[in-house]
Design brief:
Number of strands: 12
Number of helices: 2
Structural class: alpha+beta
Shape: elongated
Helix content: 10-25%
Strand content: 35-45%
């Protein structure tokens, strides 16, 4: 009976350590000054944003704190990439700044694997909750208008235990097994 009790305790610890918690997060651009950022890379705790144009602009369409990738001609037509620090789920964001002739392909990646591409030609919410473990978005902007800006990135992140936690778990289970075997002998 004592062995079953120890086994159930060990199983409870195992399940607790290997289960993942998720938490909601956002990319917040409100802390940035409006205007050109003087950089093609912005680093946040949750993601790194890279412009393949001349600069990153905040407040692109004059509403909130949207960002866009500027071209040398001061349009939001350059490509942009978002590399998340950890894989995200339930991702959504807002497209704004649409002008006639704007077109955007949103490439969704998990690691090196392309999960899908979504085309957009209008403002509004982009819901990518059908995709899981997103690590990168690549915005391929082929606009002939002013181009798009991006805002209100919302997502959940799985809180996965560190590798050291797994090592401690295995060591603890080994000691528990050793103690159990020693008592039985």
């Amino acid at each position: 009976m004592k062995f079953l009790k120890q086994r159930s305790i060990a199983l409870s610890i195992f399940v607790a350590l290997f289960s993942t918690n998720t938490f909601a997060d956002t990319l917040d651009f409100t802390t940035l000054a409006h205007g050109a950022q003087g950089s093609t890379v912005l680093v946040f705790p949750q993601a790194t944003i890279t412009s393949f144009g001349s600069d990153i602009y905040v407040g692109a369409s004059g509403i909130d704190s949207e960002i866009c990738a500027l071209t040398a001609g001061f349009n939001c037509q350059a490509d942009l990439q978002v590399d998340f620090t950890a894989a995200v789920n339930n991702l959504s964001f807002v497209l704004a700044g649409y002008d006639s002739g704007d077109h955007l392909d949103i490439n969704i990646f998990s690691g090196a694997s392309l999960l899908g591409t979504i085309a957009r030609e209008s403002n509004g919410l982009v819901d990518l909750s059908a995709y899981s473990n997103i690590t990168k978005l690549y915005f391929d902007d082929s606009s002939t208008g002013a181009g798009f800006s991006y805002d209100k990135f919302q997502f959940t992140v799985a809180n996965v235990p560190e590798p050291e936690t797994y090592g401690m778990l295995l060591a603890g289970l080994g000691l528990l097994g050793f103690a159990t075997r020693r008592k039985q002998a």
